[in-house]
Write a structure and sequence with these properties.
Elements lengths: L4 H11 L9 E6 L5 E6 L10 H12 L8 E7 L3 H10 L3 E6 L1 H6 L9 H6 L7 E3 L4 H8 L11
């Protein structure tokens, strides 16, 4: 089965309705069936490490799915930060598809650690992970273009 990247990114975008001020949504999909196995969104106002990807990964592992990471694809509205990308690698997920880049976020005042997902993967030789960037990029960029909420510190 060929994965419908746009459909899954659209679902990640829809999840940002849960926290529109922090529009980081993530969906984990079974590579063969195309079924969604976990979803998440940003809850960093509760815990600074509770990013959308982390929320989705935690939902996956809480669910008890007996799926190996190599069978999964993670879709997210934004390029995973180094913390999230590291968690994705440790989870064994071998494909990530995202919309907005870290560079776009930085340009619009969002605090970001300046380490791109592709670089983190290249510096992690024990893992393989294909990165597909720019999926529905304009739609994802629109979520972040106004910059972060005033309650978040700007860089």
């Amino acid at each position: 089965m060929k994965l419908d990247h746009e459909r899954h990114i659209r679902r990640a975008i829809a999840l940002t309705n849960n926290t529109p001020e922090l529009p980081f949504g993530a969906v984990i999909v079974h590579r063969e069936s195309g079924d969604t196995v976990a979803e998440g969104w940003n809850r960093s106002m509760i815990n600074p490490t509770w990013h959308g990807e982390i929320d989705a990964l935690n939902a996956l592992f809480r669910s008890g799915h007996q799926i190996t990471g190599s069978e999964l694809v993670l879709y997210t509205t934004t390029e995973p930060c180094p913390m999230c990308m590291s968690a994705i690698l440790w989870s064994g997920i071998q494909m990530v598809v995202f919309g907005t880049s870290i560079r776009f976020l930085q340009k619009h005042g969002w605090r970001q650690i300046d380490l791109l997902a592709e670089e983190l993967v290249s510096r992690s030789p024990a893992w393989k992970c294909k990165i597909i960037s720019g999926m529905l990029e304009d739609e994802c960029n629109a979520l972040f273009a106004a910059g972060p909420p005033q309650s978040l510190p700007r860089r």
